[in-house]
Amino acid sequence: MSERPPRADPAVPPQLTPAGGPAADLAVEPGEAPPLDTAPTPPGTAPNLLDSLPPGPIPPAAAFSAAQAEPCLAVRDLAVSFRTRGGTVKALEQVGFTVGRGEIVALVGESGSGKSVTAYALMGILDAAGEVTAGTAQFGGTDLLHAPERTLRGIRGRDISMIFQNPRTALNPIRPVGKQIADVLIRHGGAGRREAPAAAIEMLRRVRITDPERRARAYPYEMSGGMCQRVMIAIALACRPKLLIADEPTTGIDVTTQAVIMDLLTGLARESGVSALVITHDLALASEYCDRVVVMHAGHVVEDAPVRDLFAHPRHPYTARLLAATPTGHASLADLASIPGSLPDLRRPDLPACRYIGRCDRALDSCQVSLQRREIAPSHLVACNNPL
Amino acid sequence: MGAMILRRLAVAVFSLIGVVVITFALTRVLPGDTAAYFAGPAASREAIEQLRHSLGLDKPAAEQFADYVAALARGDLGNSLTTGQPVLSDLLSRLPASAELTLLGLLVSLAIAIPFGILAAVKPGSFVDHACRLVTTAGVSLPVFFTGLLLVYVFYFILGWAPAPLGRLDVFLSAPPTVTGFFLIDSALAGDWETFRGALSQLVLPVLTLAIFALAPIARMTRAAMLAVLTSDFVRTARASGLTPWSVLITYAFRNALLPVVTTLGMVFSFLLGANVLVEKVFAWPGIGSYAIEALIASDFAPVQGFVLAMAVMYVLLNLLIDVLQGLIDPRARTAT
Ligand SMILES: Nc1ncnc2c1ncn2[C@@H]1O[C@H](COP(=O)(O)OP(=O)(O)OP(=O)(O)O)[C@@H](O)[C@H]1O
Ligand code: SF4
Ligand SMILES: [Mg+2]
């Protein structure tokens, strides 16, 4: 059993001063949002990750303490396991993070680290084999992990919505896209049956689809991947949600369209003050579009920090390795071969306290049995016994 | 959609030409000498030859074929030597009996198989799922004449619940005035509920026999298609959008699962056309199947040819109908070649 040292509650960070006050509710000023129709950055042209960061006029730490004063979503101690033939897969353990109001948080990690499982658990759409075994997820007074299914169905699609990778298969192939948007609007009372088609067309216009009247009648197979993802964004934002979860929104989309989609997604989110959790493999994408990064490894959150802090001073050995391995940030974590070792088998009954131990060159004896999770700098959380 | 139907029709014309050639050839290679059969066992050699000549059976095959096609073009399927009637009118008068039986069989199997398949897919490993597996296995492994005989044995012979398997109506009842040729509909239209009940009670066992036969493939395909669709990305999207379980299940999942189910349906229906022949024999049903069997036993060419042709036409029309249905369900099928 890993002993857990006391950890600063991120909802009430100690550095929160009255100066941060309730007026500073919006962490991000409109001017900081990336312009919507910027040309995509060609891969490999960003010389350094830090260069691609917006020149922040707001000191990040202050901004985040404000954002965390009243978080949109607070996940604590989330654990998920899957029953399989080969044993129980402990896919998530003690996963915790918060998403402040209007904040855009990146969830990064290599394949299999548990990013999608985290999102699915929050949405309540885990596989039948998966089970939330511990934790809470506070969202506007509701615990998403324990609320009755009926309540959750009213929240899904209205207060929290989700966008998936591979938009072409994520849409119903035999239903016109306008109808699919209307379905959600009608379900959540966003529009009556009569007004829904027009409201759907209006949503298509908001996601900058040209000729929305005609496109509303089109089927997904008649559209490009990027266009389908715009439709997904329209569905997700149709009911003006408070939180948007995007699971690798640019995977399965043409490279040249990826930046356009991200611009649109984050632009609309910032415009309407929607908080967002963006799951991605791409560190450059995270640094470019997000305020904060949560790094996952083998079902643990290993580091959680504002973008600038994380890229300037990574404290977890895994994060440091990731950054070192991607000098331009444009290499995706998916094709990182340079980190030695692989993820531990999550079915093992004797998993070490730190799941990175097999790959770590700073490991201590204690890492086998206990793991310290602490706030090593303001708003900078790290789960490591021997941080950098 | 219109272009697709035209294209399918063009293909259908070619298949029909093939069927005409094959039916002609098939009846010529069947065992038995028609002339000898109809002349009777006591006939002399000369009498048989004379009959052969009058039937046109002594002409070269090519000439016979030309005669056959020319007659077909006039809508003349020849005369049945057994009934003495034109084959076309024989077939038309018996078609409603077969159609009523087959369509009801299909309807009953659909009404059972589809909800069964959906429930089995929604709750895999549940009681319904196991029951579904049991029924589909049984349906596949029981030959249709065996099911028919078994049902007759149990429900008529042992329990006495069903009437004797002797056709469409009890001898004491008269057929309702013909409107559609379907006894259930015609008797209901005439308000003759006694006949309606009589026709219905005669239909129960043969319809069940056909339904049990058709049930298995439909239920299995519905279950498989639903299982696949329920794990698809767009159903996940629908769930993540908070849509109600009903609209996820029907509007999103089932409509998509219908595509393979409709394809299976076409196949099942064509099997049913074949199974129908045996069921009609078992239940002494006066349809086109039993007509064809009697003609076949008597080496009576024309009705057999007419029957095969009628089946082929139905099969082609059926496939056309399936294509249209597919097009209605799936926008992608409308433009597919
Ligand atoms: N249905 C399932 N049954 C068993 N194990 C599962 C299931 N779904 C996920 N897992 C386990 O959970 C872990 C995390 O999976 P997850 O899909 O969240 O990874 P991810 O970070 O989203 O990766 P990727 O970048 O490839 O999408 C995996 O190691 C996997 O073994
Ligand atoms: S130092 Fe220890 S706790 Fe930190 S990453 Fe390495 S093994 Fe894990
Ligand atoms: Mg994933």
From TrEMBL, chain A:
Pfam hit, one: oligo_HPY
Domain ABC transporter: 75-323
UniProt-listed InterPro entries: AAA+_ATPase (IPR003593), ABC_Ni/Peptide_Import (IPR050388), ABC_transporter-like_ATP-bd (IPR003439), ABC_transporter-like_CS (IPR017871), Oligopep_ABC_C (IPR013563), P-loop_NTPase (IPR027417)
GO CC list: plasma membrane
GO biological process: peptide transport; transmembrane transport
SUPFAM superfamilies, per the entry: P-loop containing nucleoside triphosphate hydrolases
Name the UniProt record assigns to this protein: ABC transporter ATP-binding protein
Cited SMART domains: AAA (SM00382)
Compartment(s) where it occurs, according to its Swiss-Prot or TrEMBL record: Cell inner membrane
Species name: Roseomonas acroporae
Major localisation: membrane
Annotated segments matching region Disordered: 1-57
TrEMBL record, chain B:
Swiss-Prot/TrEMBL keywords: Cell membrane, Membrane, Transmembrane, Transmembrane helix, Transport
SUPFAM superfamilies attached to this UniProt entry: MetI-like
GO cellular component term of the entry, any: plasma membrane
Gene3D superfamilies per the UniProt record, alphabetical: MetI-like
Stored InterPro entries: BPD_transp_1_N, MetI-like, MetI-like_sf
Assigned protein family: Belongs to the binding-protein-dependent transport system permease family.
Protein name in UniProt: ABC transporter permease
